[in-house]
Amino acid sequence: MSFMKVDRKASKIMRALAEAPLFKKQGQVKARPAVPGERVTTTLASGVDETANTANEGDWVMTNPSGEQYVISGKKFFDRYEATNEDGVYSAKGYCRAIKNPFGRPIEIMASWGEPQTGDENCMVADICDADGNVEGEPYIIEAKVFAGTYKRVL
Fold first, then answer.
1. Domain coordinates of the chain in residue numbers?
2. N or C, where is the chain less crowded by C-beta within 10 Å?
3. pLDDT of 24-50, one tens digit each?
4. Is 70 left (phi over 0), alpha (psi -120 to 50) or beta?
5. What is the pLDDT of residue 155?
């Protein structure tokens, strides 16, 4: 698959995200503290490797219901998830703004963690935000099917 390299902070993306609908993450994930130096490859449900990341001290490894794993900082983890009564299972409490891939073809961005991240022509480009819709300014890619199963539009 050939990917169009895109600046994730391009004005076309940032303007669209600032006006995009607000979504709330739904459901539960499994999570565990990461081992510093641990390398985690994020593999989509389709079997395609989306990106990779190396964990730092205090990071967490998340596993979505679809089996997709990724690394998240401890601060972001506790801002976006809360513990349940089940050991290692956390409920989502985060928000994002998201748009469908505006380029109509597979894209590759340099993710905030310094590794390439890819998405197909139907992927979603999202940015975490607070409940008022104020974005962080760090867009990332989510597989369309995973997005549809884990986010609900609230505005």
1. 4-153
2. N
3. 988 899 999 999 999 999 988 778 888
4. beta
5. 72
